[in-house]
Amino acid sequence: MQSAISDVFSGEEVQWQLTVSRFDEWMRNDVFHLQWWFLLVLFIISAYFWWKTLDKSRLNEIVLYTSIITIITLILDELGEELTLWDYPYDLFPLFPPLTAIDLASLPMVYSLIYQYFGTWKKFITATIIMAAIFCFILEPLFVLGGIYQMLKWKSYFGFPIYIFMAIGTKVLVNIIYSVSSKSQG
User: pLDDT tens for residues 134-157?
Assistant: First the structure.
């Protein structure tokens, strides 16, 4: 059974109308507002700080870790927004994942710095737990107060084990990849 909308518009036309509508809304409500500027500055500072502190001798390994974390973050964030668990009233870019400054810069950069500076499993897990607590119980509530993040059917503490599992799972995966690579080279 076809819906009335699909009788009038093709899927591509509906998608284009949604894209145009999203862009128009972004131009009217998001761009150049205080929260938008905050997200832009956060994105730039995070990327700059990460690059300056990055151990370039381990560039491939750390970029792999960061890339996997970024992919997981983007997937989970899109899933959460699609399931209306949370919402982001302000978008840095209108046609990109919702919280680009966090998903593509700040969160992955913090994860990668923990990965870089805390080499032993004990130190890594301890730093990850501290980071998860700071993100869940300090930063997320501040973003809610600042109007950057809205928790709809979500509580901050739900994310606590997710932040930890992402870090540990990604570290395990990168270790496996590098182990396989080392065995194949020598």
Answer: 999 999 999 999 998 899 999 999
